[in-house]
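Internal tracking record. Fields below are filled automatically when a chain is submitted to the structure queue. Please do not edit lines marked as system-generated. If the sequence contains nonstandard residues, flag them in the REMARKS field before resubmitting.
Queue: standard
Priority: normal
Entity type: single polypeptide chain
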Amino acid sequence: MNKIRIGKEQAIQRIRHFCAYQERAQQEVRDKLYELGMTKSEVEEILSNLITDNFLNEERFATLFAGGHFRIKQWGKSKIQYALQQKRVSPVNIKKALKSIDLDDYNTTLLFLAKKKWNSLKGERGLSRMAKTQAFLYQRGFVSLIHHKLLLVSSLKFTIIQTALFWEDKGANLEALAKKIMAIAEPTEIIVLPEMFTTGFSMQPALFAENMEGPTVQWMRRLAENKKSIITGSVIIEENGNYYNRLIWMLPNGELGYYDKRHLFAFAGEHEFYSEGNKRLIASVKGWKINLQICFDLRFPVWARQQLATSNKESNAQNTNVAGLEYDVLLYVANWPEKRNHAWKTLLTARAIENQCYTIGVNRVGLDGKNMMHSGDSMVVGPLGEVLYHCAYEEDIFHITLQKEELVKTREQFPFWKNADFFNIEL
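SYSTEM-GENERATED OUTPUT FOLLOWS
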C-alpha cells in the first residue's frame, strides 16, 4: 500500500500537535514523519526545528518515562532501561533518566514488592520462597539490590529444645530427643539441642566417643532429613586419637559442618580429656550467617567478636553497608550450671549488644550425674539487648522466628560497629 504524501507545512503542524499531546522519543517522531511521507532530509530538518523550539527533548522524555513507569507501573530500573533502549534513546539520556529516580523511593518500592510477594508465598519452604520472590522481582526489572532486599524480608525460624538429660546414657537420650523432635508439628528451619546432648557434661570420652560416621551422627542425619530442618548440638567425637566436644551442624540433605569447642572448662577438668578447637564455624542459611559456639566459649568475648570485612577503620567509618558484618546470629549450646546462671544470662545479653546480633543460648535443665543442678535459662536476645525468650527450671520446646529487617534497621540506626577496634587472634 502506497503512503499518501502530505505537504511539509501540513506535516510540521501535525507533528507539533503529536509532540504537544505527550512527550515523545526522537525515534518515535522520526518514524511518524516517515509515515507522513517526508524524505530523509526533510525529517532531519523538522526534527532539528522541533528540538530548537522545545517540542522535542529526549532527556525530558526519558526522565518522565522513567519516573512514570517507576511510580505508576512499579517497574525496576532494568525494565525501564530496556524499554528506553527499544525506543532508541541515547545511553547518556537513559543514564540521566535512571539517575533521576529517587534512591530512597526506589528502595522503598523494592522492599514493598519483595514483602508483598514473600507474604503471598506463605506455606512455601525457605529456599523455594526466596527463589520465587527473586524471580518475580527480576521480572519487574529490579536486578540490583535484590539480594540485599530479600535478606531484609527473609526470616529464620529456630526451635529451641531445653531438656533434661539422662546421665551418660546415649540410648535413653537419643530416644527421648527423637520423640521430642518428631512431635514438632509446625515447620521449622533449625532445631537446637544442648551441649553433649547424648551424655550430659561427661569427662569419660573413652567410653562414649564416636567417630563422624557413628550412630549419633547418623541419628542426626535421619532426623534432619525427616524433618527437613537443620539439627545442631554437641556430642563427644574421637578423631585421630583425640577427643573433641564437637558441635554438629547437620543439614537436611545429609551434609554437615562442625565446630570443636575452643575454650575447654578447666574448672571441671575438660582440658584433661578433650582437645581444643582452633577455628570458628559461621554457617549460612537463607542469607543469614550464624556463628556457632559452645558453653564456656561465652566467657571469651574476643572469640565471638564481629570482625569487619576490611581492617581499614577510615573506610568502615564511611561505609553504610551492614553486610560487611561477619554474622547475624550468635548461637551457644551449653551445660551451664544453675550456680552461675547469673553470668550466663548477663553474658548472653552482653554478646548480643556488643556484636549487634541476635544471640541464642540453649541450655539443659535438671541434675546431672555429679549432682550439679542446671536451671536452663535458655534465652534469645535481640541486638539491643532485649530478651525475646527466657525459660528456667523446666523442659520446653520453643519456636521463634527472627526477622532480618529488624536486625538491619538496628544496625543502620545505631552503626556502632563502624567504630570497632581491629585485632588478630593468635592460636
